[in-house]
Specification:
The chain is an alpha/beta fold and 453 residues long. The chain is built from 17 helices and ten strands.
């Protein structure tokens, strides 16, 4: 049982505080008398989710259509927003890429969460000041309608029992002012400029705006939306010596707006270092979640490793990745935090499939090895991505992977464990499901690598 949740259960049932790490003790001091609340159920269960990629933050390799009228080089949101009829193009895409039928499909297959990448410019409909001094300053009209659609997405997800993490459980900032990495999914096709003082400060301001509006949705909206899982500060930030200090400043600023909201931070593929960071600051930033992204199709080593060997390396407890996960998850649990894999996929480099005719079996083995690893050590995982515009990619598209039989038809709890929240006669089953939720763990891709045979 996850130590963080175990401590909460002890507190809840009046058995006293467990002797856990200082981060847990800091959290326990702030547990409200009404715990567990509806939001607690969403936030503290194991998150089994999928990314809704290229819905708001566009990626051309996933969805080509919005880029047809983009300005050169035609690879980023900024390029699309400066093209002709950009407002109409984007609003049509937002209204059709993901619909209620998609949320139903996700829930029916046992997933309980989605990760929703957004950029700071998607907030301009509720606070135009987020655009001031940025590349999107003169593009507010184009994005005016984004926030209402984002809140509608949260509401729709809530109706299907799905938690939402934005920007990659509700709330991560996928594209930050000035770009936090060199990829087009950071918002523009320009150079990385996040690490200057003005952009870092403005990003913290944007995060406080986001936290305020999410907190309002969770508590004050009509209806209240308890399914916001947390705020992820940055997606895949390129490491810089100033990132640690910025993380501390950003977490404190967000918590000053909403002390209860979980905060997710990217590990910059320096997992041990950022686990140590969370542990060392556990007294001041409790319940901080570390987000690791795991792909095995980009490097030279990936190419020269067979698909079966990739699966073996994820199953072998003495191999590097399982050892890191075991070490880091234990450390984070002691600090009142958690490890999640915010992005992963079934994509393999063609070199890993060399000589294989029907690859269904090895792909199924590779995906099963990942799922088993995440279930054992992680507080949650989010597959990248839900779908692609061009069908047939069973490495990157969840829908195609399920259709091809390489991804399980269902994850998580079976249907008999699901409680209908609006049924007053199901008290006993609701208590059972509560205990199951509390007893469970808490809750660089690139097209970069085409999964083509």
């Amino acid at each position: 049982m996850h130590k963080f949740v175990d401590s909460l259960k002890n507190k809840l049932h009046g058995r006293g505080e467990a002797q856990e790490g200082p981060g847990v003790q800091a959290v326990l001091q702030d547990i409200p008398s009404g715990f567990p609340s509806p939001s607690d159920f969403f936030r503290y269960r194991k998150q089994r989710g999928v990314n809704l990629g290229s819905w708001f933050v566009l990626e051309r390799w996933i969805a080509e259509s919005p880029f047809h009228s983009a300005t050169p080089p035609g690879q980023s949101d900024h390029d699309v927003a400066r093209g002709p009829q950009a407002k109409e193009v984007l609003e049509h895409h937002w209204d059709t890429w993901i619909t209620e039928q998609d949320f139903a499909w996700i829930a029916q297959r046992g997933f309980n969460a989605v990760r929703l990448p957004i950029g700071y410019y998607h907030l301009c409909g509720v606070d135009p000041s987020v655009l001031k001094g940025t590349d999107f300053e003169n593009l507010g009209d184009v994005y005016q309608g984004a926030w209402s659609r984002i809140t509608n997405a949260i509401q729709t997800a809530n109706g299907y029992g799905l938690g939402v993490l934005i920007g990659e459980s509700f709330g991560h900032l996928h594209a930050a002012p000035g770009k936090q990495n060199r990829d087009a999914h950071a918002g523009t096709s320009g150079e990385l400029r996040f690490y200057n003082k003005a952009n870092k400060q403005h990003t913290i301001y944007v995060l406080t705006v986001l936290a305020g509006h999410l907190s309002s949705l969770c508590r004050s909206s009509d209806p209240a939306l308890p399914n916001i899982l947390g705020i992820e500060l940055l997606n895949e930030p390129q490491h810089d010596p100033s990132l640690d200090r910025w993380y501390l400043d950003a977490i404190r600023a967000v918590r000053s707006v909403d002390p209860s909201i979980p905060v997710y931070i990217g590990d910059s593929w320096m997992t041990d270092q950022y686990a140590n960071f969370i542990e060392s600051h556990a007294n001041t930033i409790p319940f901080t979640v570390l987000d690791h992204h795991l792909y095995r199709c980009f490097t030279q080593d990936d190419t020269s490793t067979s698909a079966s060997q990739h699966a073996h390396n994820l199953r072998d407890p003495n191999a590097g990745t399982p050892q890191i996960f075991a070490r880091v998850s234990q450390k984070l649990q002691g600090a009142g935090g958690a490890l999640v894999v915010g992005e992963w996929s079934g994509a393999l480099n063609p070199g890993s499939l060399r000589g294989i005719g029907d690859d269904t079996g090895v792909r199924r083995e590779y995906l099963a090895a990942q799922l088993a690893l995440y279930e054992q050590y992680c507080a949650g995982y989010f597959f990248w991505t839900y779908k692609k515009e061009q069908p047939g990619d069973k490495g990157w598209s969840l829908r195609d992977a399920v259709a091809a039989g390489v991804f399980p038809s269902r994850v998580g709890l079976s249907k008999r464990d699901v409680v209908l929240r609006d049924d007053p006669q199901q008290g006993a089953r609701r208590d059972y499901t509560r205990d199951q939720a509390l007893g469970a763990s808490i809750g660089t891709r690139n097209p970069r690598c085409t999964d083509v045979l």
